[in-house]
Design goal:
Elements lengths: L1 E2 L18 E2 L5 E4 L4 E3 L2 E3 L1 E5 L7 H13 L4 E5 L2 H4 L14 H10 L3 E7 L13 H4 L10 H18 L10 E6 L7 H14 L5 E5 L15 E6 L53 E4 L9 E2 L4 H13 L4 E4 L5 E2 L24 E2 L13 H20 L3 E4 L14 E5 L4 E7 L9 E6 L9 E3 L3 E11 L2 E6 L1 E7 L2 E6 L7 E3 L4 E2 L7 E3 L2 E6 L1 H4 L2 E4 L2 E5 L4 E4 L2 E4 L5 E6 L4 E6 L8 E6 L8 H4 L7 E8 L5 E4 L5 E6 L2 E7 L5 E4 L8 E6 L6 E2 L2
Helix pairs in contact: 1-3, 5-6, 7-8
Length: about 675
């Protein structure tokens, strides 16, 4: 069957219309057009990952930021939780794990830009959305332009500025963006007041953002003063019920950015007073694409690598020109002086989250372990970094037939093009459903007809047409472009699709896997899908880990996984194997059933939803290396070491892994509350 597209109409790119942009001392500029961001006067797509410095230890920051950089992240975003820094009114804390200046400097050392999300209200599953308790006890209106509230916000902003002064882009630093508030949908005047206050204090950055969702008309924002950024999650653990949700809309292609408006065909598209967010004034930017999700007590979710990869690929096909993940790196909540700092029903919020655990089931775990998202998402990141300058100017073009998520038989596809060249996107994946196999799929862009393909299994990919490879015009390829190193272009073979490269001069090639194909003065190398997820490009050198994830730190090539490791290095003509021998002794754990040794400090977490029987086990760990595993089923589990709770978790169906170093040499106990049929758990 032949699949075609709707007619392409080139949009006018607006420039200089937003009160934004800036220049660093080297003369490089960052600006914002209506279609894409620019850097050095060239279209630029940032890849942004959220990592909360206060939810980790400062001695880990640099190493974890290096891992993020190796995974293709170019910008790290982070919340500043007010309650973490001023738990007691007037007593500010920006030292230790709360040292925002050190974190920004470590990010710069790792080669990352930074977006600081300064609130004052931020949510992030934090107690009071990040507001200190003392602020809630004030008698004035919050999240509003009330003079007393704004006076407190000014103090908060000034204290942040004292910490980050001199680290902004205009100073030669790496802070390129600032986000104000979070999920404020109906108060543009307040958002503008926050920006003006920040500018008055000294917060100058090229990019200012606010979240644009949570209203069917789009959030009400100060139109030309900020860029609205959007999100997309594959589940909704905050939903109030315990039933399965409808199939996610985020696995079909459409141009909707605002999640609240998707599928709302019976709703008005313009508010009664005429308000509608003017999307065509801004590039499509995201800050909360769910690379993972955090379970609530009543809804336990797991996000797979393909869940995240297919989601990100679909949004890229739909025009996303700032790729932003929440979270990219998990973390661990702190416990405050007067309360826990997690969101709970007891603190007036609709959900119960773990006291400590903020792992988020994402690309990098709270302890820095790798999940499948890490390597899969990097397939997109490598492409963005090497080809984003051209790709950013390409616009979304829909298929001739609109597909709904419940349709498991139709092809899901779209195109991004500039009218001459482009990429077709195909997503044959729907979370929690199985799509029908499709045979003899022929994609016709209007200028190029791709050969027939069979689309089977869970695959999600994009293919180029009229792609310029250093002066060699590729008519089309049935492999996914990955990256470029000098005159070698790397592609990824799509599982189940025969790889072919056809050039406009009529030549056609079907090379063997990993064998260089020489075309004039360039080479093309096709990598197998399973190996490509381990590709890392570091300082213009391409590496492939041998079933391990490598990264660079202080000039060394390291593996995230424990023990010895091997990797291949591309020398310009072939791959050369390297092996690093590293001693490693996996710790062992033994469990011994015991009676309750003490009354747990946070017993209320074990009894969420009513009285539950608790089971205790003494844990003995043989060494400090590696991870120990807890495979039992439970409702809530907590681990105590020398009397202090060091970890907790809501059961979600997966094995719980804990670093042995946290337990070794300590008196440790595991307590688990009984599981009842009172929460949603995915099969």
């Amino acid at each position: 069957m032949v699949y075609t597209f709707r007619e392409y109409h080139k949009s006018k790119v607006l420039t200089g219309h937003l009160r934004m942009g800036g220049q660093n001392p080297a003369g490089e500029r960052i600006d914002v057009t209506s279609q894409y961001f620019t850097r050095g006067n060239k279209p630029w797509i940032g890849v942004m990952g959220e990592y909360h410095f206060v939810r980790d230890h400062r001695e880990n920051w640099y190493r974890e930021l290096c891992k993020m950089r190796a995974g293709g992240i170019s910008v790290v975003s982070t919340y500043l939780f007010w309650i973490y820094h001023e738990e007691m009114e007037g007593e500010f804390l920006f030292t230790g794990d709360r040292d925002i200046r050190r974190f920004v400097e470590e990010a710069q050392r790792a080669g990352l830009d930074v977006v600081i999300r300064i609130g004052p209200w931020v949510h992030g599953e934090c107690r009071n959305g990040g507001f200190p308790d003392w602020l809630l006890n004030k008698k004035f209106l919050l999240r509003d332009n009330h003079s007393d509230y704004m006076a407190k916000v000014r103090i908060w902003y000034e204290k942040i500025y004292e910490q980050v002064q001199g680290l902004f882009y205009q100073d030669g630093g790496n802070i390129i963006g600032i986000q104000f508030e979070n999920e404020l949908v109906n108060n543009a005047e307040h958002l503008l007041a926050l920006k003006n206050m920040a500018l008055d204090i000294g917060f100058h950055a090229p990019i200012y953002t606010v979240t644009g969702w949570n209203s069917k008309y789009g959030a009400r924002i100060p139109v030309d003063d900020v860029v609205p950024v959007f999100g997309a999650y594959v589940e909704a653990p905050w939903a109030t019920h315990t039933h399965p949700l409808p199939l996610s809309i985020h696995y079909v292609f459409n141009e909707a950015r605002n999640d609240a408006a998707v599928g709302a065909d019976l709703m008005d598209t313009i508010a009664e007073d005429g308000w509608q967010l003017p999307y065509n004034r801004y590039p499509y930017a995201t800050c909360e694409m769910g690379a993972g999700l955090m379970s609530t007590h009543h809804r336990r979710v797991r996000v797979s690598g393909m869940d995240a990869y297919a989601l990100a690929l679909v949004k890229l096909g739909c025009g996303n020109n700032l790729v932003g993940y929440y979270m990219y790196h998990g973390g661990t909540n702190k416990i405050g002086k007067y309360s826990t700092l997690n969101e709970t029903k007891a603190s007036g919020y609709p959900n119960d989250y773990p006291i400590l655990n903020y792992d988020f089931h994402t690309a990098l775990s709270e302890y820095g372990e790798v999940r499948d998202q890490y390597g899969l998402l990097n397939l997109l990141h490598l492409f963005i970094h090497d080809f984003g300058e051209t790709f950013a100017g390409m616009e979304y073009v829909a298929s001739t037939q609109e597909v709904q998520p419940e349709d498991l038989t139709s092809l899901r596809y779209c195109m991004r093009t500039n009218g001459e060249s482009g990429f077709i996107f195909i997503n044959h994946y729907q979370r929690l459903a199985q799509l029908d196999d499709l045979n003899h799929v022929v994609i016709d862009t209007g200028s190029v007809r791709f050969p027939a393909m069979n689309i089977h299994g869970e695959v999600s990919f994009f293919l180029p047409f009229h792609m310029d490879l250093a002066g060699n015009m590729l008519e089309h390829a049935t492999a996914q472009p990955l990256c470029r190193v000098d005159h070698t272009f790397f592609f990824v073979a799509i599982e189940g699709v025969e790889t072919e490269y056809r050039f406009t001069d009529g030549r056609s090639f079907r090379p063997a896997s990993k064998e260089p194909l020489c075309i004039g003065d360039i080479q093309i190398v096709t990598l197998p899908w399973k190996e490509a997820r381990y590709v890392r490009k570091i300082a213009n050198t391409l590496y492939i880990g041998r079933e391990c994830d490598i990264y660079e730190m202080d000039g060394q090539i390291l593996a995230i996984q424990d023990g010895s490791y091997s990797y291949e290095v591309w020398d310009g003509k072939k791959f050369v194997m390297h092996t690093v021998f590293r001693s490693f002794s996996q710790a062992r754990v033994t469990f011994e059933s015991v009676e309750e040794p003490f009354i747990p400090r946070y017993v209320e977490e074990l009894q969420i939803g009513g009285t539950r029987k608790c089971t205790w086990k003494r844990m003995t760990v043989s060494g400090a290396e590696g991870f120990i595993e807890i495979q039992e089923q439970y409702d809530v589990a907590q681990i105590y070491a020398d009397g202090q709770m060091i970890a907790d978790r809501f059961y979600d169906g997966e094995v719980w892994r804990i670093p042995a170093r946290m337990l070794y040499g300590k008196e440790c106990y595991l307590v688990m509350s009984e599981m009842k049929n009172d929460f949603y758990l995915e099969n």
